[in-house]
Specification:
By secondary structure, this protein is α/β, with parallel strands linked by helices. About 40% of the residues lie in helices and about 15% in strands. It folds into two domains: about 120 residues, Rossmann fold (3-Layer(aba) Sandwich), CATH 3.40.50; about 110 residues, UDP-galactose 4-epimerase, domain 1, CATH 3.90.25.10. It is globular. The structure holds NADP nicotinamide-adenine-dinucleotide phosphate. NADP nicotinamide-adenine-dinucleotide phosphate binds next to helix 1.
């Protein structure tokens, strides 16, 4: 029997940690990339162009599915992957969605979740909260250059999750069958507002880092100026509004329950990645 694991987004924040986790357990991993492969374990698959799907899923037993950021109707990207997984006889699919995606039946991610649930495949859906890693990816420039986290987010708290905890949960769900056909909201153990985040980053870096509130319109202009497509920039400002309204505060025990250990703390993340914010 085939024992192949396919990881979509294998070079990404979550995907790269998942590949590492699976390899550490002796698993064979096929790494999907939209670029020309440079290693024998990579396979070219472009979810936007819908190219390479059949070959990527051939002989796959377990698959991790996600949609790359930047494109709002994620169901258009994910549903063909789900259909291909079924056609290829994949035995288990783990789909990465996002916390809050199930708030309404017609959000793009919820449509993809429902397609997976109805597919007949063995499945798990994981809905992570905002990643800790956003502070050294999305929001890094303002922190490095001006010591400011510029966000229209008020004093609401978020139970940020370390992307490596998401990957560890995904690995457990892919390889085990203790939690079949369920969805999990994934969060860190503590909810912090952006003043508290800034205080931790200041402590770890020795710099004076602060949260600076900006209007949503200024955020939108900043994202457009950084080259994001307008629909995606508008989507990000909209979901930052949900954060500001308190929807990101909730904590769950899913990481602990599924991996058997507590989620990584924000302080530990900040200590490990401190070089990212030191100029
Ligand atoms: N950031 C957050 O706070 C947060 C919270 C909840 C949910 N999420 C969800 O997490 C996902 C992003 O995960 P991430 O941060 O781990 O990703 P990421 O680091 O942004 O990486 C994106 C990945 O997608 C691949 N990719 C890009 N274009 C592609 C295409 N056309 N076809 C196939 N693959 C393509 C890239 O690899 P190549 O360049 O090699 O193709 C890369 O591995 C999004 O779906 C988002 O909704 C994020």
């Amino acid at each position: 029997m085939s024992n192949q694991n396919l990881v979509i987004g294998a070079s990404g924040t979550v995907g790269s940690a998942l590949v590492q986790n699976l390899r550490a357990r002796g698993q064979t991993v096929r790494l999907a990339t939209s670029r020309a492969p440079t290693q024998p374990d990579q396979v070219q698959l472009d979810v936007l162009q819908r190219q390479g799907l059949a070959a990527a899923f051939q002989g796959v037993q377990r698959a991790f599915l996600m949609a790359p950021p930047g494109y709002v109707p994620q169901d258009h990207l994910l549903v063909p992957l789900i259909e291909q997984a079924r056609a290829a006889g994949v035995q288990k699919v783990v789909l990465m969605s996002a916390m809050g995606a199930d708030a309404a039946p017609d959000t793009p991610l919820r449509k993809a979740e429902l397609a997976l649930e109805a597919s007949g495949l063995a499945w798990n859906t994981i809905r992570p909260n905002w990643f800790m890693q956003n502070f050294h990816t999305f929001w890094v420039q303002g922190i490095r250059e001006q010591g400011r986290i510029f966000l229209p987010i008020g004093s609401a708290r978020g139970s940020f999750i370390d992307a490596r905890d998401i990957a560890d949960v995904a690995a457990e769900l892919l390889l085990g069958d203790a939690h079949g056909d369920q969805a999990f909201d994934l969060t860190g153990a503590e909810a912090l507002n952006h003043d508290e985040v800034a205080a931790i980053l200041s402590r770890e870096t020795g710099r004076d880092i602060r949260h600076q509130e900006i209007p949503p319109e200024a955020m939108l202009q900043g994202l457009l100026g950084a080259g994001l497509p307008a629909p995606y920039a508008e989507f990000l400002v909209m979901i930052l509004g949900y954060f500001a309204a308190g929807y990101a505060e909730r904590r769950t025990d899913a990481v602990q329950r599924i991996t058997g250990r507590a989620p990584r703390s924000f302080a530990a993340y900040a200590r490990e990645f401190r070089a990212q914010w030191v100029v």
